[in-house]
Amino acid sequence: MKKLLLLDLDGTLIDTPHYEAWCYAARQIGIENLSYEEYAVWIAGRPRLEGASSLIGLKKSLVRVDSRYSDTCSVLAEIKQLEFLRLSTDIRFFDDALRLLARVETSRQDVKFYTASQNAADLFHTALRRSGKSLSRRAVARQRRGQTRADLFLHLTAQYALDAVTLVDDAPHAVDAACGLGIRAYQIRRHERQPTANDSRARILPSLDDITVPIRETPKDRQ
Length: 223
Hints:
Structural class: alpha/beta
Radius of gyration: 18 Å
Largest sheet: 6 strands, parallel
């Protein structure tokens, strides 16, 4: 059976300063405290406007959000975007991501890349050029506004049996969505403060080095 590897970009393959940029943007509108746990559950892996709406919804009852911005998600999203671009001048792959991409390239594993970020595709290709990888012409699927993560996964896997797909993401909600579809899903947990996926079928890993490429079923996967 033909197998597909689905790889998230932000936080999974490339080390991007989204959390730092959201913290900065939050402070500009009067939100002083955004924990990493809150970011991981409510904002990470979501399109920018959805993340902004989620942040305001999460915090408006807890802190006094600046009245100029409390109903304007687009303003918060734009502040975040400008700060993110300022912080992203030297984007790099995680070391284990480079090793995973090398194994994907050598094995000729079917692979597709995806993201919710408008910036991630360009950053990904920049990082590929810097690292000398030949995957630089690979397209990156971006989650559209109003499209759920599950809908994105179904679109990407249309030509594959769902039980022949393996997904790797750092965002708990994305891993839960994949598990709900019957996709074998791994969550990369790079930080001790990072919440884990709720679905009992999710596999939590500290490193991409633990992913076997080419993808094949293991006794643990059949449990």
